[in-house]
Amino acid sequence: MNDPRYARWTWLVAADAAAQREAQGRMTAISHICIEGYVIDQHGELRPLAAKSAYGSGLEPGPRGGQGVRQVFISVRSAPGPIDGVAAWLDDGTARRRLLAGMLRLVEGGTWDGLELELRGAFPHLRDQFTVFAEELSWKLRQAGRQLAITVAPQVRDPQLDRLPEPDAPPSRWVEAYAASFDYRALSVYADLFLVRTLDHPQRPEALDPGQGPPWWSWAPAAVTPQGWLESVIEHALLHVAPRKLLIALPLYGREWCEGERRARCVPLAALSQRLAAVSEWSQEEDRMAGGRRYRYRDEEGRLCTLCIDTPASLAEKAALVARYDLGGLALRRLGWGTAAVWEALERALAMGGDGEPGDR
């Protein structure tokens, strides 16, 4: 997967030994490594995820400009959670300026080629404030010779700005509020790479413990990245974003739903065989509409479970959309979760079409 026409972006957790091993073994198959490094807390302060960076853990990304890794980014994202987790600082000019200064110190103080920014909260009422923040960050980074990658929620239609959901909308509307938080057209001007988080398809959200604290929810069993939905997201994004800036995310994992569990569990592709060996009475079927396979079984506690997970073939079919639409490339979540068969399938899928460099303006 060393064709330089397409970016092959991968997220990496520095403290994950499996990710380190896969990174070393796939160096020529990766163009961009993004270290999952920092979280923005509710006060707008940067908090490190790990004590060591990937460099400190022994990962050498190799020479820039040749085959293999060309750029290394550091990731900054908001703390996870279903409720708006960013309004406290995004609506505070002093907090925004403090955070901006912290991000610049972070990038300039390291060997990073750029910064990836991802906000996972719902903040539709503050989407313009986020756009202004992204603009300021973009210009500061460019002055420092660095790049900005922005990861946004998936959209399949333009948000209805006259009917935006409130940030504390019920779970059934939180997904809509999350998507409406991002102004694709404006943000694409400031982003060198525009990543769409086409992961964990939000199908039929269900409220859990309504009225008792934050409304966490789960999804009914469904593919992490359904094929048809992915194509709809791409086609909508291309109305606003230059194709060669646009990267789509693909999962190197599936989701397992078990009776009585509050949330679906993550099952990496690399752990699938081990998972199936630990359960009983399992069966499988092809997920023709969404891609991948569905496994049904009883887990170690006897509960009925459904696992929806991609296969090398289904991931290759989705990756082929990059060449079909002449996009900038793929973003894979995440290193340490793949298999040799998956990497080979992705390499074959990307070996077609396209000109120019990802991120060209």
Q: Report the β-strand fraction as a percent range.
A: 15-25%
C-alpha end-to-end distance: 24 Å
User: Helix proportion of residues, in percent?
Assistant: 25-40%
Q: Compute the number of helices.
A: 10
Total count of strands: 16
Q: Output the helix-strand order.
A: EHEEEHHEHEHHEEEHEEEHEEEHEH
Ranges with pLDDT <50 over ≥5 residues? 51-66, 203-217, 353-357
- Structural class designation: alpha/beta
Order of strands, widest sheet: 1-2-4-5-6-7-10-16
Biggest β-sheet description: 8 strands, parallel, barrel
Tell the overall outline: globular
Mean pLDDT: 85
Radius of gyration, in Å, reads 20 Å
What does this entry look like structurally?
The chain has helices at 17-25, 87-90, 93-108, 127-143, 171-179, 184-190, 227-237, 272-277, 312-325, 340-350; strands at residues 7-12, 32-40, 46-48, 71-78, 114-118, 147-152, 193-196, 206-207, 217-218, 246-251, 253-258, 265-268, 280-286, 293-298, 304-309, 329-333. With 361 residues, the chain is of the alpha/beta class. An eight-stranded parallel beta barrel has the order 1-2-4-5-6-7-10-16, surrounded by six helices. Strands 12-11-15-14-13 form a five-stranded antiparallel sheet. A two-stranded antiparallel sheet has the order 8-9. A hairpin with a 5-residue loop joins strand 14 (293-298) and strand 15. Helix 3 runs parallel beside helix 4, helix 4 runs parallel beside helix 6 and helix 7 packs parallel to helix 9 (312-325). 44% of the residues are buried. Residues 51-66, 203-217 and 353-357 have low confidence and may be disordered.
